[in-house]
Amino acid sequence: MGSRPSLVEVLDVSRAFATPEGEVRALDGVAFDVRAGEFLAIVGPSGCGKSTLTMLIAGLLRPTAGAVRINGRVVDRPQTDLGIVFQNPVLLAWRSALDNVLLQIEMRGLDPRRYREAARQLLGSVGLEGFEHRLPHELSGGMRQRVAICRALIHDPPLLLMDEPFGALDALTRDQMALDIQGLCTRGGKTVLFITHSISEAIFLADRVIVMTPRPGRVDAVVEVALPRPRRLGVREEASFAAYARRVRDRFLAHGVLRDLDGGAGP
Amino acid sequence: MRWRRWGPPLATVAVALLAWEGLVQLRGLPEYLLPPPSGVLTALGSEWRYLAPHALVTLGEILAGFLLSVLVGIPLAMLIVASPLLERAVYPLLVASQSIPKIAIAPLLIFWAGLGIAPKILVAFLIAFFPVVIDTVVGLRSVEPEMLHLARSMGASPVKVFLKIRFPHALPSVFAGLKVAVTLAVVGAIVGEFIQADRGLGYALLQANAMLNTRLSFATILILAAIGTVLFLLVDWMERLLIPWHASRRLEAAAGTL
């Protein structure tokens, strides 16, 4: 896997925000890369600048210092060769599931008629067959987020940015979504940056997990996850999975993000 | 479902009318103080030919004032949202200008705009226009930032973002403004006619009051109320037609099926 070229390079990126209480540093000298075709998860506590990172990579925000490169080119404007999924599905209330997916196509000035069938298939592949013509308020939270994911994939982008996409969903729905995402992304050879605060979600989905420190966010550790694919839900009960989870959790204990019962900071 | 919606207010009106009629008949109140509802209805029937032309004049003023407030208010709101400079230059003044009671400047408007229906339209417009601007601005601003981020990542032009996202998103708020505006336009037209007019329901009302013809006053007010209600329902109907997906509509639909 180490031989894969980098699709995204995050080069010593810092980002500060001005607030009434003074300057807040969200990210401080963050450096990592996302290799082509890899599923990279970033896990960190709330407020560690994970979402800021998504915005910087998408070109929706400029770094205070450092740079982001995609395919070797410095990101200095909003990037269009990618798909984004936020925690909030932000669907248009007056459009059906299908038309929400096709928004991506219309906004790009492409012909939505040519993508209708693809959009239908994509919705079907995440279990939304028969729901194509429902309005968002007629769908459950999980279904809405599936529509948002299809919208991020319909133009077949090489890079998918997901910012806590399961954050607002219940535990069972999260499990199903994790399986769906694995199917969608690993089959299509997509490069995925997946941001979460769930350790087990990160390990279940990712080839590599980047652990962030509390604010200001820095890269604390990188954990390679060598579990075979496709991964079934049961993998989470296996010893190897538990070992990976412990490595990530230990980093959180070391930084005081988590405090165990005896106040210890791990082994 | 219809009965659930219209039944309770109609029942209240019926009870109030009966009580009113009974009070007048039993206490023997003089006509010029409080005519019985039956008397008002009689006046409405007998003075119909006199009142109808006045009603048409006032209706015309209301509609013109309201349409003008929409035609000026919505584009102005769009400009305010599109241009931060314009927003800083205009928006605070607009809000501050609302502390001026429109009724107080109505005589000046008549003075400037002359006789005829133009000054009445102007007063109706000035009163109705503010909620249109404010609610449209609020609506256009209410789009989630994530949606706008997504639109940028889709490489969409600002025009497309406006047409496909911002404007439809603003419609529920715009209609809330239009409902207030159409009601205020009625007030504006009548205020204009009160100050100076030789036609219109406001004029008819002043004439009836001057002659202590209370029956006719009530009949005129009844027509005014009917005009206001019908116009409001018309805007409401358009809202249903244009934004069936809107949340408050859905709640209503859900309540209706209970």
Which helices and strands occur, and which strands form pairs?
The complex is a heterodimer of chains A (267) and B (258).
Chain A (H helix, E strand, L loop, with lengths): L5 E14 L2 E14 L3 E5 L6 H8 L7 E6 L2 E2 L7 E4 L11 H11 L8 H10 L15 H13 L5 E5 L7 H17 L3 E6 L2 H7 L2 E5 L6 E6 L14 H16 L13
Parallel strand pairs in A: 3-8, 3-9, 6-7, 7-8
Antiparallel strand pairs in A: 1-2, 1-4, 4-5, 9-10
Helix pairs in contact in A: 2-3, 2-4, 6-7
Chain B lengths: L1 H26 L9 H10 L1 H35 L1 H14 L4 H12 L4 H24 L3 H9 L4 H38 L5 H10 L3 H29 L4 H10 L2
Can you put this structure into words, describing what you see?
The complex is a heterodimer of chains A (267) and B (258). By secondary structure, chain A is α/β, with parallel strands linked by helices. Helix content of chain A is 31%, strand content 25%. Chain A contains seven helices and ten strands. Chain A has helices at residues 50-57, 97-107, 116-125, 141-153, 171-187, 199-205, 239-254; strands at residues 6-19, 22-35, 39-43, 65-70, 73-74, 82-85, 159-163, 191-196, 208-212, 219-224. In chain A, the strands form two sheets. Chain A has a six-stranded mixed sheet, sandwiched between helices. In chain A, a hairpin with a 2-residue loop joins strand 1 and strand 2 (22-35). In chain A, helix 2 (97-107) runs parallel beside helix 4 (141-153) and helix 6 (199-205) crosses helix 7 (239-254). Chain A is globular, with a radius of gyration of 19 Å. The two termini of chain A are 30 Å apart. In chain A, 41% of the residues are buried. The model of chain A has no long low-confidence stretch (mean pLDDT 91). With 258 residues, chain B is mainly alpha-helical. Helix content of chain B is 84%, strand content 0%. Chain B has eleven helices and no strands. Chain B has helices at 2-27, 37-46, 48-82, 84-97, 102-113, 118-141, 145-153, 158-195, 201-210, 214-242, 247-256. In chain B, helix 3 runs antiparallel to helix 8 (158-195) and helix 3 packs across helix 9. The radius of gyration of chain B is 22 Å and the shape is globular. Chain B starts with a helix and ends with a helix. The model of chain B has no long low-confidence stretch (mean pLDDT 89).
